[in-house]
Amino acid sequence: MMPALPSSLEPALEARDLSKVFHDARRGPVHAVEALSFQVGPGQVVGLLGGNGAGKTTTLSMLLGLLLPSGGVARVLGIDMARDRHRALARMNFSSPYVDLPHRLSARENLSVYARLYDVPKPGQVIARLAGDLDLEAVLDRPTGRLSAGQKTRVALARALLNDPAVLLLDEPTASLDPDTGDWVRGYLQEWQRRTGAAILLASHNMGEVERLCDDVVILKGGRLAEHGTPAELRARWGRERLEDVFLDVARGQGQSRPTRPEGPGEPHPPAEPPEGEGL
Ligand SMILES: Nc1ncnc2c1ncn2[C@@H]1O[C@H](COP(=O)(O)OP(=O)(O)OP(=O)(O)O)[C@@H](O)[C@H]1O
């Protein structure tokens, strides 16, 4: 048996040889995620990128223990989420603008319910602090269903930070925000992460956001890992100045067909395969 690593060396989050096959009546077996391995180290922020249908949500759902993998393992803080999800839940959290909070409850009531579920000590104080941080004081007592998309996103983020998670999974945290509010939320997340040392896995289509927040980037294509590295490594490898162009090259399987400089900077890189069916 392999000796256990001291907990400080353990990845905060790990996908190892992770796969998910959906059995769809119309499409037959759908290989949403295939043999996917990556890690998020303690205190690291990793971006999970990929086009529509590339497998990001399926991956996040397995890491949250909401979907059982067809193969491989999803671990959070060393805990196998398919077996022992309940042991990790108190130390992790998740936020997505696509998951609605009950509409009739006020923002404060929603946050109070979740604070109770997470057994947050002094919940009133924690909610007041988060409402101050996220500029929600004026809307705390309004029904959540009547808030703007930007206000709902900030309430959802407050909900995700209630238990001071050591591991935070974020699905498109700024998707519905105007550029100014989006920028503000990114700045807040960056400051929060530096202060708490939490590990973050961030699924995003916003390359500026990924370049600003992420130490490392995983790009999925058709459920498989197509690229992995720091934003600087990926730019150098693909001879691109912007991560957005790296993403497009990976998506289109173009490799270095359009280098940004004539000599083609960076290491040569085998072009990614053209997309098969759905996926990036
Ligand atoms: N419950 C399901 N049953 C059948 N197929 C599914 C199911 N959930 C997802 N899929 C398929 O699995 C693949 C990956 O989907 P997934 O939602 O993980 O992609 P994504 O990267 O999150 O996409 P997006 O950026 O559009 O949200 C797609 O082909 C999708 O249609």
Key features of this structure:
ABC transporter; 4-stranded antiparallel β-sheet; binds adenosine-5'-triphosphate; 280 residues; nucleotide-binding; 10 strands; 9 helices; disordered N terminus
What does this structure look like?
The protein is of the alpha/beta class and 280 residues long. It has a domain of 73 residues. 34% of the residues lie in helices and 23% in strands. It contains nine helices and ten strands. The strands form two sheets. The protein has a six-stranded mixed β-sheet, with helices on both faces. Helix 3 runs parallel beside helix 5 and helix 8 crosses helix 9. The two termini are 39 Å apart. The site of adenosine-5'-triphosphate has 13 residues, from strand 1, strand 2 and helix 1. Adenosine-5'-triphosphate binds next to strand 1, strand 2 and helix 1. Keywords: ATP-binding, Nodulation, Nucleotide-binding, Transport. Belongs to the ABC transporter superfamily. InterPro entries: AAA+_ATPase, ABC_transporter-like_ATP-bd, ABC_transporter-like_CS, ABC_transporter_ATP-binding, P-loop_NTPase. This is ABC transporter. GO terms for molecular function: ATP binding; ATP hydrolysis activity.
